[in-house]
Amino acid sequence: MSRRWLLVVVALAATALAAPPAQSASPRTYRVTITNLTSGQPLTPPVVAIHRRGFHVLEVGQPASFGVKEVAENGNNAPLLEALGQHPDVAVAVQAGDSPLVPDGTPGAAMFDDRVTFRISAPKAFRLLSFVSMLVCTNDGFTGADGLRLPRERGDRVVARTVAYDAGTEINTEDFADIVPPCQELIGVSSGEPGTGTSDPALAEGGVIRPHPGIRGIADLVPEVHGWSEPVARIRIVRVK
User: Fold this and answer.
1) Which of 43, 96, 168, 236 has the highest count of CB atoms within 10 angstroms of its CB?
2) pLDDT tens for each residue of 45-94
3) Taking the model in full, what pTM does it have?
């Protein structure tokens, strides 16, 4: 693994933060698997939260929070983890793994898996799960789910498929100079530009979360390589304890 990639992994990884769980409720434990279903879009390590009703990590048609913006533009999970960890309606917020989820058949698949499986626990009163993960080869694309109902009984499971969203925070230039560096190495299409993990104010869009229009091929991204058909990810939740 190259030194440049090691530095990128460090930049993408974040420490999991959790709000104090309710004192009176015993926790329930769930086994969660998130799988990348695309052929040319790596996903960053997902940010996953268990929370109460009425709380939203993302809302289509509404502006993205700063935390969601940072995930969608820069693969930076830390601000969203911090915000979730401080919210009273969130029982736990974690980063699922520390490696990207890379599609089979791409150069990055030799080093990384296309899915992550983990366990997460929360008191009974917190019954919804949400997650967010960047589509790495986009300006501000991401996938996720807001408010999936957790399975009630041991052995019960919930399976959902998620689509691609545009955060509405950065213009879709499709230029590698404006996209996080791992894209080129993981997928194998490169212009030699270094890329960036920092937002450019000149590209700020000021829009709302909406379905992603897809890859148009107006610059470096190639629709036949980086494009996708919906759904882009699958999440499977099983109650195990």
Assistant:
1) 43
2) 999 999 999 999 999 999 999 999 999 999 999 999 999 999 999 999 99
3) 0.90
